[in-house]
Design a protein that fits this description.
alpha+beta, 725 residues, 6-stranded antiparallel β-sheet, single chain
Length: 725
Amino acid sequence: MPLATPNAPSPRRPLSLRLLLPLLPALATVLVLLVVLWANDSLVTRDLARRAHFRAEQTASVYADQVERVLTRRMAELELVARVASAAPSPQGEATREAMAYLQAHAPSLAGVALIGSDGQPLIALGDTAGLVWRTERLRPITAPQLMPPEALIRQTGAARASPWLAALTVPLKTGAFEGHLVSLLRSAYFDELREFALGDVAARREMELVLRARDGTVLLGPPAMTVGIGLSADSMDDAETVTVFLDAQGEELAVASRQVQSHDSTFKPGWETQAIQPMTAATRPALRLQESLLLWGLLAIALIGGAGMWLSRRLARPYDELLDAVARRQPMPLDGAPGAYLRAVSQALQQLDSAGGSVSDPLLARVLHDAQRLQTVLDQLPSPVYLLDAQGAVTYWNQQAEAVFGWSAKEALGQTVQKLLPGDVHAHGEASAQGDAPPFEARTRNRRGEELWCEWRLLALSDPTGQGLGQMALVRDISDRMRAEAALAQHQIELSELTQRLLQQEQQTSRRMAQTLHDQLGQTLSAIRLTFDALRPLWRSAEERQQTRAQSLDKMIGQANAEVRQALVELRPPLLEDEGLAMALENDINLRQPEAEPVALQLEVAGGAATQRWPANVEYAAFMVAREAVGNALLHADASLVQIRLSGGAGGLQLNVADNGIGLPADLAFGRPGHLGLVGMRERALAIGARLEFQPVAGGGLNISLRWAPSAIRASTPTGTLAP
């Protein structure tokens, strides 16, 4: 065997193996961090901006509705007082004063009520109207109910106002020779409380501002409005939705929403406007904080993973580098660097050592034995149990983690069989894989103390160079915690299903009680109002034109209220469902929907004996509500021309399919999203009855929603804390 050259240069491994491979985990972490940051900026920030715009619109609309209801009611009450004054012997008599006093006492939004003569002097003054003289030049042109700012109507005459007030409602009063006005002062504090209620909790406002403006742009309530500039349309995830933002004087983006304050009375025009302004920086601040946290922790993780990878790679590669260096020193010729050259050199060196009768004192053999000792140390320190079996199935090696998990020491385990050490069905899998490597399997066993364990085994067959079997190596992983967690999760799912079922039953009972209340109380009251109104119809015909117009408006509102009550009864208690069954209820619901669904065609197909089949009441109710929700979603969002409902089944189960030829289900709606709870509601109803709900695309476009229920779908609960076999 040729001697090694003492100063032979050590072979250099490729730079990609020495530098790039240890940094691969850090590079992968960088890529994941970039993807997460992009997703946060593209999805979370955009969604928060869309939510801010929606909150601004909702806040402005809520406040406008509240102000509208208060103004309409106060104006109707003033007109009622005017009627009382007109019917009394004297417009400024005791009847008028009592009506005004009652209005002042029972209307918290009013600061004062007054009856003003044609000369501007108060004839009756209650509340804050005492001590005020009215400008007759402002009152004479008023011939219809109006809402006027205080500066245009009154001036102070000495005593200050008792409390701040917002504006004045004026109603002209003319009866006989008397001409005057009924005036009520609106309390600013009351409308400011409505504004605070519309804004909601202070912590959830995100710096949103809400103001009430007059027709000329004057801010009546709220802080001075921000200067709003040009509007910009921002992109959104949904092509059907856009978010409009504005810029203030400093260039900051704002979500702005305005709503006109209207009135049901066509003769009364308030001329007010509510405006909600949401700074986009405040709305998207959570996303920015999340992005900063992700960046900080991501950079820290990259540094730790990169450093750990470099250190670990150098530590693990050190003995193999030394072995390759030893081989290179023993080679008479330099290595060519071809693939496998080092492994071939190691094999040749070992063969030369064996043929030359080398001893342990040989440096290369000593290095190999030293590496074998290191391998023994690695196996002993592995975090998972490892053991070896000979050809007869007796244990020949038992590492430290096997001692910790199974309770048997290495001294006790050596020479014993697996059947004795690990009772259970582990040995059956071992016999099946004795002829070769087998896929991993899970089995239950017990440790020395008799405690039950779930483990995952991977058995590797060992053989000599001639193919003769030497035994097996077992790699074991303790999965008891995972199995217990899965059992607990299954139990929680069963409990959730039972809770959902109870909630749906409570919903049915509540809907039934509400329907009964609407029918027996509100419905009867509306019927009595209709009969009374019809009885007074001859009186309205002889009244003046304005009163006839109001009577016609009241007639329409009574009819609309009756229709809304009937529609609410249909929504709360589906017709024919309890008496005739699911098929008849679906047919009736589709017939009612068809006129409103035009030009979309609705088709119902009832297969076989499903027309007369009756299922449990909760199953029929859940299936009906799923069908109603699916049809409603198809009409609103699918852009379809045909919606088909198919009901089939019998005593062995039920199957309901709702298919359309529309645009299908977008990927972001497959599991629901904020503001789209229809799919979530359908899943909860299916879960409550133990049914299976699927959303499947239809060939050529469209969506098929399938609900399958069978009595055997109800699963028995598993006690928490036990492991199922």
